[in-house]
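Weekly modeling sync, notes
Attendees: S.R. (lead), two postdocs, one rotation student

Agenda item 3: backlog of single-chain predictions. S.R. asked that every request posted to the team notebook include the full sequence so nobody has to chase files. The rotation student volunteered to paste the first one in as an example of the format we agreed on. Action items at the bottom.

Example entry:
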Amino acid sequence: MNITEELHRKHVSRLTALRRDRLPWWQSWREIAEFYIPKRYIWLMSGDERSRYLTKSGTILDGTGTNAGRVLAAGMMNGITSPSRPWFKLRLANYGDDVDLEARAWLDEVERRMMLVFQESNFYNAMAVMYLDLVFFGTASMLIYEDFESVIRCYNNALGEYYLGQSDRMEVSVFAREFKLKVHQLESRWGRENCSDHVRMKIDKRDGALEDDIEITHLIQPNTGDYKVSKKFKFIECYWETTSQEKTRALGIKGFNELPGIFPRWELTGNDAYGTAPGLDALGDVIQLQHETKRKGQSLDYMVRPPMVADIQLQHRPTAPLPGGITFVAGINSIGMKPAYTVQPPIGELTMDIRDVQGRIRETFYNDLFKMISQLETVRSATEIDARREEKLVQLGPVLERFQNEALNPGINRTYAIMGRAGLLPEPPQSIGDAQLEIQYVSILSAAQSAVGVAPIERFMQLVGNISGVYAGALDVPNWDELLINYARDIGVKASGVNSLESITETRRARAEEAQAEKMLAAGSVAAPAAKLLSETQVGGGGSALDAMLSA
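Predicted structure, as returned to the notebook:
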């Protein structure tokens, strides 16, 4: 696939600009990787640093920071996109849950098929890795491509190999990365004919050269019409060999109807394309923890195995420094062997400070939210537990909202579009027409976040119930139907489990008519014996009491 030299120059120029924009973040990411997950992100180092680093154990002496981050990532995975339960529902825009049975059945079937695609592909495995990147580095990336075997195939990109650029709406619209592939991988993916002459020579040898690394550059950006690709595609991607001298040769060029990836950020500042996260917020505490743990170990060494001074006569003689050992010394006036000085470090105070630092790290990573009950030091009331959980959920709310907008929405839309183009979606009923779909999240965290809003409703209804004992008019204040319907919606009750206001009104009308009919029937059953009694009662003149009443 050929491109012009001018287009190649634009590629290189844009990549240089993206690299320059990412440079200030590089040192922070290196430090985060070093103190949290060094074995995984060693490619943030140079080649020489990497080879040296693999021969040593790293800088982590206390794994509290790493474990706290993994707890948060696992909690978000289970609380937002749990593989074991539904975490999203589809609705028709402007219709809400007020749709006919045929439309509801179609929406349910689409949801079922999409959940099946997520489960049968590597979607959840890739999401788990993405959550880990997000909580430590504040930025994550996952490409979603069409796949013949599993409909979709997800690829996690390593932090340090990719670059991001934003649109004027502060959404990621440009993605670039520099990575390496083996020679045989290039041939399998793009074919021998699209490779450079240098790579073709390695392919033709069919020997160990097939395992050689080739540097590849990958760029995804909005389709501006520079390529020989239809403008109906909103995005375009291009691959080329980074070090190849054949500037007009591209490995592959492809168009996309939607951005083929999701790029969530934890928290943004200004116009930054990259986010910050708890990993950066807790970095100071994590470094302090490693320092204090190292000093505590050194202190214990000084106490258990202090530096010693010995008589010169012991030089080059065997000694028994272990407990219970005896060392024989010549000379009555010999000083033998004794500690050079006495070390008495404040181990208790140091241990308490380490625990305080560990607590701050876990709190920064929201571990007290995901381990709310198990980490309470004393037995607490359910009300206090709920209050603490609501407090933490409020803090996590903006993060959840951003994650839905930057990861879940585009991920679901991308998957839906791929399934639609592959003919894997059921035929929509005519009643839907051209209505647009919208996404409603029903995951554990989304439901809990919505449930935070029911606290005022609960307090209001409880207040009315308490006051009604002394003031019956308080029961007339609340709109009970609206309150209960909204309460059920906010705590995650399915719409099918709650009757609409129209249905409630109709049920009450029918019940009232039935009660009125029963009342009239009861009145008739009482009147009939009375009329009979009157008709049989004789009065003066030979007539009955009933005749007398009628003639009066």
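Discussion: group reviewed the output briefly. The first strand starts at residue 88 and ends at 92.
Action items: rotation student to repeat for the remaining queue; S.R. to check formatting next week.
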